[in-house]
């Protein structure tokens, strides 16, 4: 396979190979498993198993001291306590991702933000799951008055902290921080700061083809 040198920007494109059969052997509370029979380019067929997911939002909340609001909680599938940024599922199909992100920041950290922008959009594991995540940058942080949201399960043991962005970036590159949204969010913010700046990020209501929403 020849390697082509490309000097222009590249981007992902929509494409859908023909599916001749589809079944859902498992449906859980929020996610499921689907098996599709897909027609390959040579005309043969192959089965593809993947997890179906409603989509998620995450928030890189950056304060005036360039500290990021992070959470520490136990994640059973990987048997570790991970440092993460606030995140949550899109519970309702077509839900506005900005409102979902604002809800997660409030529920998990009891914080609100005045300035919201889209930091980046990612597929977490496109080889085996259709989960799409929109990561927002939130600034102009302030504590929310009133009672805190009632937490349960893993969140009962959750720790909240504010850590300098540069310190988190070093932790990512040293292999000490592993949460997908934290890694992508922190490195994206560092890239934005080193490039065109945070003001050049997309607006909070930018289109999201992976999970279309209503304003």
UniProtKB/TrEMBL annotation:
CDD domains: NUDIX_ADPRase_Rv1700. GO terms for molecular function: hydrolase activity. It holds the Pfam family NUDIX. GO terms for cellular component: cytosol. InterPro entries: NUDIX_hydrolase-like_dom_sf, NUDIX_hydrolase_dom. GO terms for biological process: nucleoside phosphate metabolic process; ribose phosphate metabolic process. PANTHER family: ADP-RIBOSE PYROPHOSPHATASE, UDP/ADP-SUGAR PYROPHOSPHATASE. This is NUDIX hydrolase. It comes from Streptomyces luteoverticillatus.
